[in-house]
Amino acid sequence: MSEHDPLIGTLLAGRYRIECLLGQGGMGSVYKARHEVLDRDVAIKLVSSRALAADKMLKLFRREARAATRVDHPNVTAIYDFGHDELGRPFIAMEHVVGRSLVGQLMRGGATEPMGLARALPILLQLAEAMLAAHGAGVVHRDLKPENVLLTRHRGRDDFVKVLDFGLARLVDAADSASLLEGDFYGTPAYMSPEQCACKPVGPPGDVYSFGIIAYEMTCGVLPFNAAPAQLLYHHQNSDPPPPATTRGVSSPIDPLLLRCLSKDPDARGHAVKLTRELRELSALVGAQLTRAPKTSLPLTVPDEGTGDGDADHKPTMAATIEEQRQKAASRHARRRALDELAVALAERGLGGDDLVERFAAKLDAEDEVLRLEAELDLLEVLADHHEQRSREREARLRPAIGQQRTDRGARGQPGGAERAIEKLRTIASLRDARLEDIARRTETHRHELDSAVLAANAAREALIELLRSLRSSAGADAEMMSLYMRAGV
Predict the structure, then answer these.
(1) What distance lies between CA 455 and its chain's CA centroid?
(2) Which of 143, 165, 173, 255 is catalytic?
(3) Is there a catalytic annotation at residue 355?
(4) What is the mean pLDDT of residues 52-72?
(5) CATH number of 98-302
(6) Where are the domains of the chain?
(7) 370 SS3 class
(8) pTM attached to this predicted model
(9) What is the pLDDT of residues 276-302, one digit of tens each?
(10) At a CB cut-off of 8 Å and minimum separation 6, what does 273 contact?
């Protein structure tokens, strides 16, 4: 398709060499291009003249594109530039992301499958953090859906989230419908908030509702409402979503959060700050269960004991769920501490001999190695964030000089401050990429080492527990020893 496109190979706006067509929609076409001055790949949204024929639409394009450039977050696709090409067609230059859409990860064999909580939580947390950054900049997405969420690989880690079209949704949807000119109706029915369905103003709570739909679909395997578009608009405004535990057959710690996000009352949904905090707590608890205590951790979902008809006052709140999970994590930590105390007490009584000392020392060494690697991974993450943020800030300071060069036609080709700024920007990008590549390699190595260290720590712990159990009869009826055995769960 792209080989017949007359734009392929041409230079757009004097700096973007068009390489291939990535896709087409109501708003226009999206191309992969190369910025010939900065030598980097970008995605170009070339807006059709028909889509912005009305004066209101042209003003909307400028306002929305300008607002979108204010969102600066790793999980949001960056907007680099916008303007008009030689033929007067509006375009937006944005970060080119290679990845797969979230909808592709949810669909298996033509049907949606639920995603495990251990994988879903990090994705949802990144999506919430992207919302938090955008809302903090005064930008609302208005059309969050799996198609607008890309999963890519970043710093050696899969499932890194990139959200597309933050602040541009009205442009995309309006291009497919002239109704924007009359009532500002836009969105995807399956993911629209009640206020959006009613053609009311959409603010940050509308994005939170759409987030809730995405989270429900990810963790349940189905949408809360599945009907024709007209019926969907009705259900979003008038029907309660089926309880997630009923839909999937088991309850999950995330369920209270899902139901709150899907509240009909925008004020009851909470804001992105609260959402992000709760997801961080849940992610930390689930991560601790998976990586630090795989043999003793409680399941991430538990059978639903009720029928869904109980008193609503007895439904767990998100805070209660998190507190329950925190208490369970504290209980596991207490058992491990008691295990260490038990090993010391037996050794002091001369039981277990050298075998006990060696197994206990091996366990402590293995756990110390896990802690060391976790700390180094945290430092690498901070270092990568630092380099990325600093380069972004320096690029932002230099862009005005580059913009001045573009508008000052008479200065083209003449050495000056703008040319030096462009060269500096190229150097900044090159150094940043080299540093981040090095950090990504080190991070990948540390992750493999951490996986091996966790397995070694678990094996050392099990070897110690096996010996402690064999020594239980030798400990006699000593009350202190019996108490330690009970606390350690051995």
Answers:
(1) 27
(2) 143
(3) no
(4) 71
(5) 1.10.510.10
(6) 1-96, 98-302, 327-407+414-488
(7) helix
(8) 0.64
(9) 999 998 888 776 454 433 333 333 343
(10) 132
